[in-house]
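Posted in: Structural Biology > Protein-Ligand Complexes

Title: Requesting predicted complex, 6-O-phosphono-beta-D-glucopyranose in pocket

I'd be grateful if someone could produce the 3D structure tokens for the following input. Sequence and ligand are given below.
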Amino acid sequence: MREGVHAGTACWIVDTAHAQAAIARHGGQLLAWRPADAAHDVLWLSPLAKRPPAPLRGGVPLCWPWFGSGEGDLPAHGLARTRAWALDDWRLDDDGSVALTLRPETQPVPGLEVIEHLRIGGVLEQTLETRNTGDVPLALTQALHSYFHVGDVAQVEVDGLDGHDYLDKYEGYAAARHQRGAWRLDDPRDPGRSDRVYLGTGGRYLLRDPVLARSLAITSVGSHSLVVWNPGATGGRAMDDVGDGWRHYLCLEVANAVTDRVQLAPGTTHRLSQRVEVQESHATG
Ligand SMILES: O=P(O)(O)OC[C@H]1O[C@@H](O)[C@H](O)[C@@H](O)[C@@H]1O
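-- Reply #1 --
Done. Output follows.
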């Protein structure tokens, strides 16, 4: 564990026999993670990413304490991703993983305390822990906004959503739609793009990528919603920090979003977690 620079941004760098990773001070944002035996980076970081104080496009931005548009002048996806974070503590576990605890240098919301726990090894574990330190109940929406690196988003499939309802941002989250089969970008209802919040989800997802010849197994705890976002060609090119990069990522965001709100009574804690494992496809023949 050392301090360094990754993609031009001040980071904590993990480099062990099991994995490499970079976590930005800006937003406490995991920018890169790659198990030692993985052939490709697991996370996508835009080559066109803006610099702090702008949000960084890629890795795992922390959307907190709200997901999506802010009220009035408040920024999209909350306050955590543009704050400076501090490293509280780190340790090397017996299995060779590095465990880190981070928190914003200044907590952005009075009465709420947010802490990020990361465990970096052959498997990634990430938790956003929120405690209501005040004396009134507070509601929270949030997401681990993972940009997963894929070979070609038009060729991947996501399991774990069949039979679930979703709300579509392109429809103002107005009407529930029903998913049949695996998620694909070429879904005939809304082809070539996706901005959906799947509800009542079970927390087990598989992102199958035939081009990179691997699958990513994602499990979540403390979440009953999954955001699936890719802007497609037209939408991507309209975003100056995405451009043609839209083809190389899919956002699968374990979340508490839209109707999946967390109600935090005074003195209580909520944990939103994900675990990500890379399953390389073995060559045949
Ligand atoms: O550009 P931002 O604020 O990082 O948001 C990126 C995307 O984040 C997703 O979570 C939203 O569902 C999309 O609607 C949004 O475009």
